[in-house]
Amino acid sequence: MAAQSNMTSLSVGLLIKDLLSTDEGVMAVANKVFPVISEAGAKLPYICYRRGANDDRGVKNLSGADTTTVEVLCYAATYEQSILMAEAVRKAADGVQYRYDDAESGQSLVARSIQMTDAEEGWQDDAYIQSLIFTVKVNNS
């Protein structure tokens, strides 16, 4: 019998990292995927992501799903490269369902839907940035 998951929308970052870092298209254009902030000395191009707003339905509510906003930032040395990264991330994540299984704990988290809802671009610390905002609906039990 499989272990029942205790993962909630608070664990959505683990799911996003797994989704992006195992996608061949994303990893063909990015060196690494980091949660929240890159490591010191990280080499461009890379991706950072963070969990944002959360609409929590409660862990005891069996009929709904939590909705979480995730921001994915694509950092690159050139504008063109940042666009290629953003396109790869969108192709990997937009409109998909995804299951994350944690091998160590035996727990899992299922994204019932992942939808890109916004995007913008910028420049910071000698890098072009493409910011993609995704809304992720996850099972809450």
Write a structural description.
This protein has helices at residues 12-21, 24-27, 79-93, and strands at 33-35, 46-55, 65-76, 96-101, 108-124, 127-139. Helix content is 21%, strand content 43%. The protein has one domain (9-139): STM4215-like, CATH 3.30.2000. The chain has a six-stranded mixed β-sheet. The mean pLDDT is 90. The chain is globular, with a radius of gyration of 15 Å. It is built from three helices and six strands; from the N terminus they run H-H-E-E-E-H-E-E-E. With 141 residues, the protein is α+β, with helices and mostly antiparallel strands. The two termini are 16 Å apart.
Overall geometry comes to: globular
Main CATH class: Alpha Beta
Percentage of residues assigned to helices: 10-25%
Pattern of helices and strands: HHEEEHEEE
Number of helical segments with 4 or more residues: 3
Give a short account of the largest sheet: 6 strands, mixed
Strand percent estimate: 35-45%
Q: N-to-C terminal Cα separation, in Å?
A: 16 Å
Radius of gyration: 15 Å
Major sheet strand order: 1-2-3-6-5-4
